Amino acid sequence: MNRYSEADRKRALALHKRKWGYRRIAQVFGCAESTVKKWVEVSDQDKHPKPDHHPKTRKAAIAFYKKNKSSSIAGTAKKYGVHAKTMARWLEGDGVEIRRRPTQYSREDILADLKKGLSGADIARKHKCSESYVSAIRNNRS
Q: Taking the complete model, does pTM exceed 0.85, yes or no?
């Protein structure tokens, strides 16, 4: 049997909502901070249950992505309540070609700027890419 009643837990959650810290709540109830954290986590899971990854959801999400050419993986995932990585795995597993956004920079343009002597940071800002990408091109050029 639990040492703390459901009323105690509800009271602790109410205190947590009022921005009381775990330590302070634990002192009031004479329990460990980890106990209070567990109560809060269980309460949060009840409010935000994990999405149902039912096979019908998977089929519907894949069909939606295939049909709507303007839809992104993230947008489709959000619509069906799944994580974007899960959506990408489903698409790859189903053999669907994943649409990628076109890049805003080209390798040849970056190489030309490197030959001009521009710094990596300046090139990255100009082409809206990372400095590490510019460095990788600099190191791989012949």
A: no
